[in-house]
Amino acid sequence: MPGYKAILLDVDGTLVDSNDAHAQAWVQAFQAHGREVAFSEVRERIGKGGDKVMLELAGLEDDSSEAKALEKTRSETFAETCLPKLKGFEKARELLQRLRSAGYKIVVASSAKEKELEPLLAAAGVADLIEHQTSSDDAENSKPDPDIVVAAVKQSGLGADEVVMLGDTPYDDQAASKAGVAFIGVRSGGWGDADMPGAIAVYDDVADLLRSFDSSPLREASETRVS
């Protein structure tokens, strides 16, 4: 059995119920800049980096003046109207406490901007449990490219085969696979098992994973270390 020593955590849709809010912030930002984009088109891309969202939906390169202005509007909209209302998923804190007691290093591997990450971790009630974290600011290329996952592995000080990632989107699955990292999925972000074909296990949400901990790949790994 694999001897995992660290877990890499996505945040949006995994620890915090925020995917719809992110999509709505993008829709409002596009509208503010004279572009009509359907909520469904944005929602299916949440989990990708914002640079990819703008390129795919508006043909905007992220270094263009329009893209920078649109991202600024999105960021302000999300911070002012969405963040204050967000809540963590049930048992998010308890799962991280269980992971810590099992000896795991905990590293955040999020596509969120660094200035948004702390409020998101606070909303999940887990900020004090995080040992290391990476954000989109630590990666040249955003998910589903593997850069963020690679950066998180480096933060852990371990090899890719010694860590496992927990996430909720196909883009987490793809990024982990490209980085050579095992992946566990949760359905709480709006995707199903078929959307995460690389996952070694899939659970409804973090509460389901916690309930199933003793039979999960996480438990197997911790037993391997203890023995």
Short account of what is shown:
The protein is α/β, with parallel strands linked by helices and 227 residues long. Helix content is 45%, strand content 11%.
Your description of this structure?
With 227 residues, the protein is an alpha/beta fold. It has two domains: 6-18 and 87-226, HAD superfamily/HAD-like (Rossmann fold); 19-85, Orthogonal Bundle (DNA polymerase, domain 1), CATH 1.10.150. It has helices at 19-32, 39-43, 50-58, 65-82, 92-101, 114-124, 147-156, 170-178, 206-211, 217-226; strands spanning 6-9, 105-109, 132-134, 163-167, 182-186, 201-203. Helix 1 packs across helix 4 (65-82). The chain is globular, with a radius of gyration of 17 Å. The mean pLDDT is 94.
Major beta-sheet overview: 6 strands, parallel
**What is the general shape?**
globular
| Total beta-strand segments | 6
End-to-end Cα distance: 12 Å
Q: Average pLDDT across residues? A: 94
Strand order in the sheet with the most strands: 3-2-1-4-5-6
Q: Extract low-pLDDT stretches.
A: none
Assign the CATH topology of the largest domain.
Rossmann fold
> How many structural domains can be distinguished in the coordinates?
2
What is the C-level CATH assignment of the largest domain?
A: Alpha Beta
Task: Report helical residue fraction.
Answer: 40-55%
Q: In percent terms, what proportion of residues is strand?
A: 5-15%
Give the name of the CATH superfamily of the largest domain. HAD superfamily/HAD-like
Radius of gyration: 17 Å
CATH architecture of the largest domain: 3-Layer(aba) Sandwich
Please write the string of helix (H) and strand (E) elements: EHHHHHEHEHEHEEHH
How many helices does DSSP assign? 10
Going by helix content, strand content and strand pairing, the class is: alpha/beta
Oligomeric grouping of the chains: single chain
